Structures are given as structure tokens and as C-alpha cells.
């Protein structure tokens, strides 16, 4: 576990074993699939969101859902760089289900340079700021997806996105890990860059996930209730399953549940989607009592 992932666990009071955020944006196929060519930024900023609430609720930044809490109650802190595609004003919002609540939410910034962090300081607090927005400064600009086609009212795009996810689930069930990971490699690479992960660690993580899918020692628990959700103000397509959890649901024999959350965009003028954002979120639970 790297330093960023260790900080992700700080403040978690319920049963998440890990919140391994490996997200992000590629800019219209920017990047190469050779992770050995990665050069990580030497300095930047990390942004952490802290929520004190009770599920069910979903949090979003820039209209991108990246945390779903079902029933847990308490305080959780997590890294939010994965929803910040460029410097500037960032929108924060949440959806609260029946019986849920958000008591308070805040955003902290920590400057990062050569593996060292400056002290965190709060830049936004829901109890003090009326506007649901904060300003971020990051050493990258990956906002190319914002110029992609608006898919919110295009049924053909929705159908193509549904077929894309169906194909990915088939690849996973057929234990074709290398092909599976190849289809998300460009977005995965951007995730590593945005989280300041270098070439050696990037290669290791990519190979580990490909190897995991190749083994076939898991179950895919997506069901008929899954649907395509359009987010990011009409720019991204997202697979949403039961209880609002997003992504391809992977069940390991030890009871570990992993939500492999993938977001797609449609480059301008193209009819087929491209993976542009990734989130591997792992949760400890007894899936045998949850999957029907």
C-alpha cells in the first residue's frame, strides 16, 4: 500500500477494509499503454473530503458519483483527486436516501512534494459555506472529456454504452484478464498520473489486476436491475447497479466485494465509447447474504 492509500484509510470508522481509489481521466485517448514510460508529477495537491453522516447517500464532485454509502453511520475521509480533471472551481453535491442524512461535509487540501505532505487545512465546510463548491489547484489538465458528445438524450449512445459493459462482463467471466485490462489501460494510466504513481508501481498494479481476472477465482454479481446512468452533466456513461452502487461487481471467495466502477465518454464525432475514468473500490462484507 502506498502513502496515498494509507491516508485514504484515515478517519474511516466502519467496515471498509480499504478505499483504493484508482481513478481517472484520459483526454480523448491521450497517453500510451506502456506504463514504463510514466513520469509522475514531483509535486501537487491532494484533496480529501470528510463526511459525517448516515446512509443511504451518494456523494458527487462535478456531478460524478464516487462514493455510495448504504447503511453505515459515522465519519469517513477519502481522497477526491480522481474527480478533479483540472484546476479551478469544483462542484460538490450529494443525494440522500430515505432515513439517511449528511450532518457535515468538508474538504481539506494537503500539498504534496517529493513524497512529503504539508499539513492539511480546510478549504470548504458545509456548515460555513453556502455555496457547494471549492477551488482546487492540480498539476494536470485532463478536461478533454468535457468536449465530448452530450449523451444524455441520445438512445444510441446509451445502447452502445450498455453493450460495452456487457462485453466487459463477458471478458471477465471468460477469464480474459489481459484483454479486459487492455480496454481500460489508457484511463488507468491517467489514474496513476493523477495519483502521483510511478512507472514501476503502475506496471505492478496493472499486471496484478490482469492476473486476478485470468485466474477466474471470483464471481460477477451484476444483475438485471443494472442500468446505464448519465452523469458529469451529460458527458459520461456509468453502469449503476442495485442500491446505487456503480460498476462491475466482483465477489472473491474470502468475502471481499470489489466495485470496479468504469465511466465512459464518446469522443466528438465517434459512435463507440471509450473508458475515461476508473475507480476500484474494495469493501469487506459477507456477499453470500447480499447477492440474490
Structural class: alpha+beta
Overall pLDDT level:
81
Number of helices: 5
Q: SSE order in H/E notation?
A: HEEEEEEEEEHHHHEEEEEE
Distance between the ends: 33 Å
| Main β-sheet description | 6 strands, antiparallel
| Rg of Cα set | 18 Å
Helix content: 10-25%
β-strand percent reads: 35-45%
Low-confidence stretches: 1-32, 286-292
Question: Judging from the principal axes of the Cα atoms, what is the shape?
Answer: globular
Number of strands: 15
Characteristic terms for this protein:
single chain, 292 residues, alpha+beta, 6-stranded antiparallel beta sheet, 5-stranded antiparallel beta sheet, disordered N terminus, disordered C terminus
How would you describe the overall organization of this protein?
- Mean pLDDT is 81; it is low at 1-32 and 286-292.
- The chain has 292 residues and is α+β, with helices and mostly antiparallel strands.
- Strands 10, 11, 12, 13, 14 and 15 form a 6-stranded antiparallel beta sheet that branches. Strands 1, 4, 6, 7 and 8 form a 5-stranded antiparallel beta sheet that branches.
- The relative contact order is 0.19.
- Strand 2 and strand 3 form a beta hairpin.
- It is built from 5 helices and 15 strands.
- 20% of the residues lie in helices and 37% in strands.
Secondary-structure map:
Elements: H1 3-8, E1 43-54, E2 57-61, E3 64-69, E4 73-79, E5 86-96, E6 101-113, E7 116-117, E8 121-125, E9 133-141, H2 155-173, H3 177-182, H4 185-194, H5 199-215, E10 219-220, E11 227-231, E12 236-240, E13 248-251, E14 256-265, E15 274-284
Antiparallel strand pairs: 1-4, 1-6, 2-3, 2-5, 5-9, 6-7, 6-8, 10-13, 11-12, 12-14, 13-14, 14-15
